[in-house]
Backbone:
């Protein structure tokens, strides 16, 4: 019995054998006489090529006139899904992370909210005008979308039984 099991174990499943036969090349294998030029491999960003990477920045929410919530995605540094940025004035020149426009000292900007530890994009800036332009396309706040409740709605809500902790 054990001998039969060993023989069966050495047999290849017909389906596996068919697949293996189909994957064999039909022509004889070719020999390569000269090396094939391989495409250059992507390397990790360095000081020289890091400038070519640009983050993807989008406005998620505008909680107040002095704050904005951004979705920041930078494949070389970090990813912040809902990062709070605060209004400020630029102290140094730089580039807007959202539009690529030049930023000069004194321009109105948004920057990541100071925190400890500092976020990886702590030196980034976004022009306030770019935020205003993108925030204009956001849907209005919930209070503005919903009209005030009617007296009938308030009465109906008051009459509904409240759920207690047991229910």
Residues:
């Amino acid at each position: 019995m054990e001998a039969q099991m060993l023989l069966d174990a050495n047999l290849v499943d017909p389906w596996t054998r068919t697949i293996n036969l189909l994957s064999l090349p039909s022509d004889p294998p070719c020999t390569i006489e000269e090396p094939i030029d391989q495409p250059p491999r992507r390397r990790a960003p360095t000081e020289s090529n890091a400038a070519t990477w640009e983050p993807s920045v989008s406005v998620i929410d505008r909680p107040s006139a002095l704050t904005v919530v951004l979705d920041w995605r930078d494949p070389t540094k970090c990813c912040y899904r809902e990062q709070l940025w605060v209004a400020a004035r630029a102290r140094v020149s730089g580039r807007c992370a959202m539009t690529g426009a030049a930023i000069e000292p004194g321009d109105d900007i948004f920057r990541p909210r100071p925190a400890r530890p500092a976020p990886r994009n702590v030196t980034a800036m976004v022009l306030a005008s770019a935020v205003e332009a993108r925030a204009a396309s956001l849907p209005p706040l919930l209070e503005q979308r919903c009209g005030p409740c009617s007296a009938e709605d308030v009465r109906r809500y008051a009459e509904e039984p409240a759920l207690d902790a047991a229910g």
Remarks:
- The radius of gyration is 31 Å.
- DSSP finds five helices and seven strands in the chain.
- The first strand starts at residue 56 and ends at 64.
